[in-house]
């Protein structure tokens, strides 16, 4: 039998494979999530996320040095406040924990891209992402507060605000608010396609943001749906989003591909806490090769069409990329 086409020729040696490979993961693609808490001398590991910590601002300042030398260029901040109330006032307090972390970071590392996650759930006593009345999460009154939070973070130095609440109309409201206050150059990264996912479990422990009643299915997306995601992304584009996001990542690569094919804005995907915890737990048990599985997973996200990835593995990946270069 005569075989003329031999795809294996392109796989014969590492040099050939490197020559023809199609997808790259760069350190500039990575966004590192950080949890900041009130207090001093706090560096507390999150039990379900080994290797990820709560930092008070003094210990975070130390950690910032590691981030800076790692080569990672973007950080997304999540705040865990001491005080929570019905209206999530910590989210839009100019002296809030994230606002102070932003000012500190920008004063020390002005070139580091600072992204502020914008939501109320870490700051509300009921743990929902918006104002609650009679057991319902109110949409329109929540927009005012989200925009206030975005403006407060922009004033504190955020290069990008990233609303994660899934209220209708929040991107347009936020864009107008930022523009009206002279922050027309502050980018909006929209959590456009955010599914009501069980993969967020460890994050809720990390951010102490589990809802006190009910769940988030009246605002986060039903994971059985695909067309709905296109509607959400189209609205965010129309309302002025600069970057779109699909969250979670690994179980939703079809959506990363769909959104990347249909929309021309840069696309981010969030490899969420549950994805991290699963890989970490298996690695700690010696069941998988952590580095290989993580690099393969992240490259799959790029191959599906993500331009950037929010991942708790960012600092490890940065180190692995250097080792491999
Ligand atoms: Zn939220």
Automatic annotation (TrEMBL):
Cofactor (UniProt): Zn(2+)
Residue numbers binding 5-aminolevulinate 1: 204, 216
Residues at which Mg(2+) binds: 232
Residues the entry annotates as binding Zn(2+): 119, 121, 129
Coiled coil regions in record: none
Pfam families, per the entry: ALAD
Catalytic activity, reaction form: 2 5-aminolevulinate = porphobilinogen + 2 H2O + H(+)
One function term, GO molecular function aspect: zinc ion binding
Alphabetically ordered keywords of this record: Heme biosynthesis, Lyase, Magnesium, Metal-binding, Porphyrin biosynthesis, Zinc
Function: Catalyzes an early step in the biosynthesis of tetrapyrroles. Binds two molecules of 5-aminolevulinate per subunit, each at a distinct site, and catalyzes their condensation to form porphobilinogen.
UniProt name for this protein: Delta-aminolevulinic acid dehydratase
